[in-house]
Amino acid sequence: MAALVLPSTTSCSTSSSSTFRSSSAISRCSLSPRSFVLTESRPRTCPLNGVRCELSESLNGKPCVPILNDGMLSKFLQSRRLENSVNKVNTRLKIFSGTANPTLSQEIAWYMGLNLGEINIKRFADGEIYVQLQESVRGCDVYLVQPTCPPANENLMELLVMIDACRRASAKNITAVIPYFGYARADRKTQGRESIAAKLVANLITEAGADRVLACDLHSGQSMGYFDIPVDHVYCQPVILDYLASKTICFNDLVVVSPDVGGVARARAFAKKLSDAPLAIVDKRRHGHNVAEVMNLIGDVKGKVAVMVDDMIDTAGTITKGAALLHEEGAREVYACSTHAVFSPPAIERLSSGLFQEVIVTNTIPIMDKNYFPQLTVLSVANLMGETIWRVHDDCSVSSIFQ
Fold first, then answer.
1. How many Cα neighbours within 13 Å face the side chain of 134?
2. Rounded CA gap, 371 and 375, in Å?
3. What is the pLDDT of residue 77?
4. What's the family (predicted)?
5. C-alpha to C-alpha distance for 224 and 232, rounded to whole angstroms
6. What does the mean pLDDT of the chain come to?
């Protein structure tokens, strides 16, 4: 395992009133996406309640992953995690990682001051999944970190087998930590004879033995109602908002854009956190799955910096056609912000075509080396999820994190 170097604390400076503000006051250090070695950073004034941020340069052409640190936490993420994580030997909290996103799992464990649990996961020759816990979980609160990202069926089945292994090992409580919940787009019937796969997957996770689910930025809020067990919904907007606040963009030049009508509520909440920035909506008509046609723009973007907000980028057809329309309508710059970087082909070609000033995503889904491009910035949600896990474990409020 690569060595982790803790960053130094940040210094304060006075921010300019001409830049927009995020409601979450966080300062940040940066880690490279493939290692845990702190990169050389350069200071940049951040209009975030007078805090000076440390943003690192890209390493080998790859974007660095900003991640929070103990000495730099503001009231947004204050908790008793340090005193709770002192006695690691006797803790009844255990975290296990699946094979879908081990890097994120390791970052979460580091934030919480814990070590990942020992687990053996392998595939038989015919593709069957074998899971064996290498340590006792009897009477423990177990958290299984496993996004159901591509290959979705493989990772989903692995999560179910992990849950079953913990249940049969007499774990007290089992929480499925799903940074990216696959099948969430199939949440309703829009045509005859369609399945509602989101409900089916929720039933599978519940019947496998999970007592609670922790998920990030679900495609639609009603997906929480498909589970017959408690669901904690983690909103990753604060991480993206904090990064945007480090940009020296004049508030009067900013407009938040929803790439479709279905994402208006998400974009409106995002705009509200940016000092009630104006909102624009791209009206499109979809003729098939992963095929979108932009029709019209509602709102004014001429001469402005447009920030397009969506929950995921799959093939990038919707967001790139929307960006092209924004440029036609006179937008000066276009930023794309999304929590889940699914990046199915030909997403990389579309996103790196020059339409976007920057593409900002999080690491809920691991990004392969071949999918990095100069405009891509990857932000880490590890500390946000680690704090949520601590609060669930301590029976504390989770919603207060996002207020």
1. 9
2. 11
3. 53
4. Belongs to the ribose-phosphate pyrophosphokinase family.
5. 8
6. 81
Contact 258, 266 (CB under 8 A): yes
- pLDDT at residue 275, rounded to an integer: 83
Closest of 178, 175, 171, 173 to residue 156, by C-alpha: 178
Q: Length of the chain, please?
A: 403
pTM above 0.90, yes or no: no
What are the start-end ranges of the H helices in 299-351?
Answer: 317-328, 347-351
Instruction: Name the token pair of 79.
Output: 């908790």
pLDDT band at 301 (very low <50, low <70, confident <90, very high): very high
Residue among 196, 203, 215 at smallest CA distance from 148: 215
Q: Residue 154 — very low, low, confident or very high, per pLDDT cuts 50/70/90?
A: very high
Our CA dihedral for 356, 362, 364, 366, rounded to 10 degrees, sits at 70
Please say whether the dihedral angle defined by the alpha carbons of residues 15, 20, 25 and 29, taken in this order, is positive or negative. Answer: negative
Position 363, amino acid: N
Work out the number of other CB atoms within 10 angstroms of the CB of residue 336.
Answer: 27
What are the two backbone dihedrals, phi and then psi, of residue 23, each rounded to the nearest 5 degrees?
-75, -20
* Number of Cβ atoms within 10 Å of the Cβ of 330: 12
Residue 324 and residue 188: Cα distance in Å, rounded?
Answer: 30
For the record, the structure tokens of 3 come out as: 């060595």
Residue range 301-308: average pLDDT?
95
Tell me how far apart the alpha carbons of residues 193 and 217 are, in angstroms, rounded to a whole number.
28
- For the chain, the distance separating the N- and C-terminal CA atoms, rounded to the nearest angstrom, is 36
**Residue 147 and residue 205: Cα distance in Å, rounded?**
13
Q: Which domains does the chain have, with CATH numbers?
A: 29-77 (no CATH), 81-235+385-402 (3.40.50.2020), 237-380 (3.40.50.2020)
pLDDT of amino acid 4 = 42
Torsion of Cα atoms, 354 then 358 then 363 then 366, to 10°: 20
How buried is residue 303: exposed, middle or buried, by Cβ count under 10 Å (0-12/13-18/19+)?
Answer: exposed
Cα–Cα–Cα angle for 307, 292, 255, nearest 5°?
15
How many Å apart are CA 46 and CA 248, to the nearest integer? 8
Write the pLDDT tens digit of every residue in 165-184: 999 999 999 999 999 999 99
Question: What are the tokens at 361?
Answer: 């995503």
| The residue to which tokens 């392998």 are assigned | 122
**Confidence at 55, pLDDT banded by 50, 70, 90:** very low
